[in-house]
Amino acid sequence: MDKTGAAVIGCGTIFDQHARVLHDMEEAELLLVVDSEVTKARREAERYGCEAGSDYRAILERPDIEVVHLCTPHHLHAPMAEELLAAGKHVLTEKPIAHTPKAAESVRAAAARSSAQLGVVFQNRYNESSRRIREVIESGHLGRLLCLKGAVTWSRPPEYYTENDWRGRWATEGGGLLINQTIHTLDLLQWFAGGEIERIAGSVTTDTLGDYIEVEDTAHACIDFSNGVRALFYGTNAYLTNSPVELELIFEQGALLQRRDIVYLLQDGEETELCRPSQTATGAKSYWGVSHGLLIRDFYRHVREGRHFWLDAEEGGRALDLVHGIYSASRIATSIMPGGRGYSS
């Protein structure tokens, strides 16, 4: 089997989630890792037996590199993706697709012009629990979905921001809690709800990290969809631990509850276990889940078979639209964000 040549740009915290999968894939070969701090790139290149570089533009002239993974700070996603797509490179970018809606539109346009594919990493859609919930929704066994809610109570200490100067800044991160930590949960809420967003009410605040960041660490929202479904959301980085994400979906004839990635069915006053994951993530970054590998392998299958990848620029941008809808709904956010409105910067 001819292997698909790959490169990873960015050797930060998410790098290993991509490099390990590529190292284990029979159909792919990691050829190059790139980081602006070349010592980081060399260290990771030695670990994974590939080349190291400090300038991603070298990839543009490399015909042996077909797929490029973007694991860079948020504000670099859009300009890098646009250049790579223009050069005919397939791009798999970590969330968010861009740090502003305007930049996301540029990426969508670049993807539409390119012969290559762009995929966005929302790995939680590949979780066993997420797939099972979608099956129940689509089957109609519990009747129509009426409403749902999601809660994310995590912790981010000051050092998380002071050690990486791009974090906690509108210009480089594009926001805080919403665009970085809880965007995966917001993506699941809108994916489960279906329909277009009709109304968003909510607010963002900075409850505990105001001395270190200019963005939010806490947010809540009420989201109404065109199909009549309502979603409630609460998230914070002000907790003192990273608690498991909690989801609840209420149907006409029952409810689904997700706790610790286990899905429970509540019907006729009885709660039964519906889905338990076969794998459970452990360690300090366990909240990332176990599905990066599933998504990455699926992206490569689509590329190799010439099929359009479903988490594309349009689908992958929906969560960013929701994030900025909440920013725009918040009087606090709209008064401090560049340009005065969440979607115009």
From TrEMBL:
Pfam families referenced in this protein's UniProt entry, alphabetically: GFO_IDH_MocA, GFO_IDH_MocA_C3
GFO/IDH/MocA-like oxidoreductase domain span: 131-256
InterPro entries reported in the protein's UniProt record: Gfo/Idh/MocA-like_OxRdtase_N (IPR000683), Gfo/Idh/MocA_Oxidoreductase (IPR052515), GFO_IDH_MocA-like_dom (IPR055170), NAD(P)-bd_dom_sf (IPR036291)
Domain Gfo/Idh/MocA-like oxidoreductase N-terminal: 6-120
Protein known as: Gfo/Idh/MocA family oxidoreductase
